[in-house]
Amino acid sequence: MSTIFKRRSIRRYTAQPVTPAQLEMVLKAGMAAPSAENQQPWQFVVVDHREKLDRIPEFHPYSRMLKEAGVAIIVCGDRTLEKIAGFWVQDCAAAAENMLLMAEELGLGSVWLAVYLLPDRVKALRELLGLPDHITPLAILPIGYPAEAKEPIDRFDAWRVHRNHW
């Protein structure tokens, strides 16, 4: 539970590199996510090429931190792996959250950068990474050592909890 409450959106990173073992743990956490009928419709593109990371802010206005992060994981849905059409979004979102939590557990930081449902971002990322038509990018997760400290936050709001009826 402490990892859940400590996880915060990190937008500044140090130059310390993420190790291959850490990156593999983050990816394993993503692949451990639940999915509808166990379809596991995810694909992950690991981007550590500096030129590609630096180009993403040209079309994604909230991704400037990629110029500091040494690596990013692009969480994608693979429609050829779907058993239930459209559920890839929920499944890949669960995978992304698992990766955010694992990054925190490993002393790393990350932030969810939305791509899907914004056609210009989907198109530009698809072109930059050479994604085939059946692969749709959902989110970008920069991964790195935090260059900022944020306190844990309690967002519980009893007003948003309804019992047995609205």
TrEMBL record:
Residues 4-55, 63-145 form the Nitroreductase domain. This is Nitroreductase. It comes from Hydrogenispora ethanolica. One of its GO terms (molecular function) is oxidoreductase activity. It comes from the Bacteria. The keyword Oxidoreductase applies. Gene3D superfamilies: NADH Oxidase (3.40.109.10). Keywords: Flavoprotein, FMN, Oxidoreductase. The keyword Cell wall biogenesis/degradation does not apply.
